[in-house]
Structure formats: structure tokens, C-alpha cells
Specification:
358 residues; alpha/beta; Rossmann fold; Arc Repressor Mutant, subunit A; 2 domains; 6-stranded mixed beta sheet; 13 strands
Length: 358
């Protein structure tokens, strides 16, 4: 990992590419079976290293933003790692490492990521706070995973905005930062230039969301496949809060139903049809589905249809009426309404930004 040395190796300075190309060409080979190219400037990602580094959260970031993507041609991101404290540092678990101390990395970055923090009540240096404030002032994207939200809050960047964090920290965080509007159920929240995620693995969801925002659903899905992970999970972290694990057969019946729906998305699925497929009562079905997915059946279904529509907009020149039909919406107006409600942009705008058919 550039700028990040384990054990006894000598420290190696790490900066972003000194002479980046004017653009790189991303080759998408699997969207609609059509080879297409699109010019992209490599996006600079700076990751904060610190003593007590959360190793899992850091691993998420390096996996998604730091690895080469030979299946996509040239790199999507140019990732660099730096600390703002000197000396030997340790990860959680006791592994020692040395990180470059290069503040300029953060001043050059398009995105800065705080991969967790050493504790909700641990001190946060003035150097870190000022670095984040400068980055926010110039419009850089700021990302926190799990307890990293405390660092953004200490810098005064979340007041009056929306955010989320691990459900274990919500009570403590809301007491200390009452001006931040916490969504306790969300896996991640994007508010302007700031993205916050819930606990640990929700950082994967947040990072894939960033890839999807930067390069579209097709490339995000390719990255997700390499992770052996769903590109987008419906439902929130409420599904992970401590509760008894279902021991009956209901979850199996619902899982089979979900697979059938994904394979036949254009069908006119309704709650009565879903209930009939599972052989449950309405009340039991609603309760079991929400317990399994963290989402209501219709919210899950709408999200699935929007994701399919998003991929069709990128990979085909089909009309909105045809895409609406293929993904199960009643017409183009219904597609437009749900697409904009969930993603904040119209289908036409999304196609213009992310279409690979140029």
C-alpha cells in the first residue's frame, strides 16, 4: 500500500501521480455486451492513517479505491495514504506500521476518507480538524466510516446536516452533537459533499455508492462482483441490531420469492401475489420480510426496479417506455417519479451522465 508501510520497512513518501494524464479511458466490456469507452480523469482519494487505525475499515477503502482493475482497463482512482502524526503507529489488533506524513495529499484530494476512529472519546488533533475544514471549504468529498463520524463532527462539518453512524454510537453521538440530524436506520447518508456510513461493513455500501456516483451502476456492479457483494443493499442497519435469529421456514420461502421476483421483474408484483407465493398471512409476511431485509416489500421491490432501470439507461438506447415496461413500472411517468424520488435526478439526466453508448 503506497504511503503505508508495515513492520520494519523504511518509510516511502507517497504523493499522487506527479504528472497525471489529461484523461484515462475506462473500457466497460460487460454492459449490454457492448465495448464502449469514456474519458475519465483519475479521481484522487486520500485516506487518513492514525494510531489505533481501524484495520477492517481501512481494508474496505484500500480494496475499493486502491486496487488495480484490469477488467476495466485503466484505474478508476488514484489513492494515497497519509497520517498527520509522526512515529510508529499501530492498527487495532496490535500490528505496527509507518505511514507517510504528507499533508499536501489531503489538499490535492477530490475525496478524503476517515476509515473509523480510535474511539468516540479519543482526542482529535487540530491538524486533522483544520485539514478537513480546508477540504470542505473547497468542496472536496468527505467520507466517514463507522466511528469516523466523530472526526467530521469535531471539525464542525455536520451541524444542521444529515448523517449516520453505527447503531452502538447513536445515543452517545446525538447527546454530544444534537445539531446533527442522525438517521439511525440508514446504511449510509449522502448530504451535499459529505458521506457518512453506519458500522464497518456498511462502509462497503457507502464506497460502492461513491463508485456508482462517479462512474455509474455498470462499473459499480463490476467492482461489487469482484468483492462478491451486492452492488446495492436495500434496507437499513435496523436489520442488524440485536434480535433473535429466525429459526422457522419463513425466511427460506421469502428468499425464494425474492429470487423469483428478480428473475421476473416485469411481472405485476403486488403484496397479495407475494403473500400467495409464500403461503403466509398478510401480517406474518410483512413482519418476516422486514425482519429478513430491513425493508418493506414494496420499498425493496421499487429499489430493485430502479437499479435495473439504471443499468438499462447506461447500457441501452431503449426508450423510457420500454425500460419502464421491462423493469415493472406501469409507464414512463411512474419510472420518472420513483427514479427521481430515490436518486434525486431524472432518468434522462442519468442516461446523459452515465450512458456508455457514445
Amino acid at each position: 500500500m503506497y504511503g503505508f508501510i508495515l513492520g520494519f520497512y523504511e518509510k516511502a513518501p507517497r504523493t499522487f501521480m506527479p504528472k497525471p494524464p489529461e484523461f484515462v479511458t475506462i473500457t466497460e466490456k460487460r454492459v449490454g455486451g457492448i465495448k464502449t469507452t469514456e474519458p475519465r480523469v483519475p479521481h484522487k482519494v486520500a485516506v487518513l492513517a492514525y494510531d489505533g487505525l481501524c484495520s477492517f475499515e481501512f481494508g474496505i477503502v484500500s480494496e475499493i479505491f486502491g486496487l488495480k482493475r484490469p477488467e476495466l482497463g485503466l484505474p478508476l482512482y488514484d489513492m494515497a495514504v497519509s497520517a498527520l502524526e509522526t512515529g510508529s503507529l499501530k492498527m487495532q489488533g496490535g500490528l505496527g506500521f509507518v505511514a507517510s506524513v504528507e499533508p499536501e495529499i489531503f489538499d490535492q484530494a477530490d475525496t478524503i476518507i476517515i476509515p473509523g476512529w480510535r474511539g468516540p472519546h479519543a482526542d482529535i488533533s487540530t491538524d486533522i480538524i483544520q485539514m478537513l475544514q480546508r477540504a470542505n471549504a473547497r468542496g472536496a468529498r468527505l467520507v466517514s466510516i463507522c466511528s469516523g463520524i466523530y472526526v467530521l463532527a469535531a471539525a464542525g462539518l455536520l451541524s444542521g446536516g444529515h448523517a449516520t453512524t453505527h447503531w452502538r454510537y447513536i445515543d452517545d453521538f446525538t447527546q454530544r452533537y444534537p445539531l446533527v440530524k442522525i438517521d439511525p436506520d440508514a446504511l449510509y447518508v449522502e448530504d451535499g459533499n459529505i458521506v457518512t456510513s453506519a458500522g464497518s461493513s456498511a462502509g462497503i455500501d457507502a464506497c460502492l455508492h461513491i463508485v456508482r456516483q462517479d462512474y455509474g451502476a455498470g462499473i459499480a456492479n463490476t467492482v461489487a462482483r469482484r468483492l462478491v457483494m451486492h452492488a446495492h443493499r436495500e434496507g437499513g442497519q435496523a436489520q442488524f441490531i440485536e434480535r433473535p435469529i429466525p429459526t422457522d421456514q419463513a425466511s427460506g420461502r421469502i428468499s425464494r420469492l425474492m429470487v423469483e421476483i428478480e428473475s421476473n421483474l416485469s411481472d405485476a408484483w403486488s403484496i397479495p401475489i407475494m403473500i400467495a407465493k409464500t403461503g403466509m398471512s398478510k401480517r406474518t409476511f410483512q413482519r418476516k420480510f422486514t425482519a429478513l431485509t430491513g425493508s418493506t416489500p414494496l420499498r425493496w421491490l421499487t429499489g430493485l426496479r430502479i437499479d435495473a432501470a439504471r443499468q438499462a439507461l447506461e447500457a441501452t438506447q431503449l426508450s423510457l417506455d420500454v425500460i419502464a415496461y421491462q423493469t415493472g413500472f406501469s409507464d414512463a411517468d411512474a419510472l420518472h417519479y420513483h427514479f427521481q424520488s430515490k436518486l434525486g435526478v431524472t432518468p434522462s439526466f442519468y442516461r446523459k451522465r452515465f450512458s456508455k453508448l457514445t
